[in-house]
Amino acid sequence: QAESVRRREVALQTVRMIQSAILTCADLKTNLDLIVKAVQLAGFDRVRIYEYRVSTERFECRAWIGMPKEFDGYLIPREKSHFSREIYRTAETNPRVLLFHPKNSEFGIDPDAGPLNKSEDQSWAVRPLRFNGTVCGQIAADNAVNRREFSQESLDTLELLGGLASQAFANERLEFEAR
C-alpha cells in the first residue's frame, strides 16, 4: 500500500508538471515525452502516443517509452484492423480507456502484434484522444515485460493523462494555425 501511495503522489506531481508545461506552451515533443513517462509511472511497462494524421488516415507514433529504438514514427493505418477502427470510432463518440484482451476479443489477434512484440495472450489499454470533436490520436500501453494485470488506479491515471495529451495536440495545432 505504501508503494501505491508513493506512486499516486509521483503521478499527481507529474500531472501538475505536465499541466504547467502545456500552459506555458512547451513544445509538443516535450509534452508528449512527459506524458509517456507519467503513464509508465502509473504502472505500465511500455507506452506509445500516436498522432492521428487526417491526410493519410494513419496513427503515427510521436512518443514512446519501453519500445525498441526503431519504433519511432511507427504507422498504423486507421483501416488496417478492427482494433484501429474501434479506437477511431471510440475517439469520435466517447473517448475513454479501452481494454483489449486478444484471447477474449471478437477482433482476434492484433495485426501489429509482431512489430509491437506482443504475445497472443497479452492485453493492452488504449486511450483514444479527441479535442473539440476532432480525433487527434491515442495512447497505447501494456505490460509486456512484467505481465501484470492493469490496476484500476493505472487505468484511471491513463484516462486523466489522455486528456492532457489531447490538450497538447490541440495546442500544437492552434500554434501551427496561428503561424
- SS-derived structural category: alpha+beta
Helix content: 40-55%
- Low-confidence segments: none
* CA-CA gap between termini: 49 Å
Rounded to an integer, what's the Rg over CA atoms?
16 Å
Strand and helix order: HHEEEHEEEH
Walk across the major sheet and give the strand order. 3-2-1-6-5-4
Assembly level: single chain
Strand proportion = 15-25%
Please work out how many helical segments DSSP would assign. 4
Number of strands: 6
Largest sheet: 6 strands, antiparallel
Description:
The structure is a single chain. The protein is an alpha+beta fold and 179 residues long. Helices cover 42% and strands 22% of the residues. It is built from four helices and six strands; from the N terminus they run ααβββαβββα. It has a six-stranded antiparallel sheet, sandwiched between helices. α1 packs antiparallel against α2 (28-41), α1 (2-23) runs parallel beside α4 and α2 (28-41) runs antiparallel to α4 (152-178). The model has no long low-confidence stretch (mean pLDDT 83).
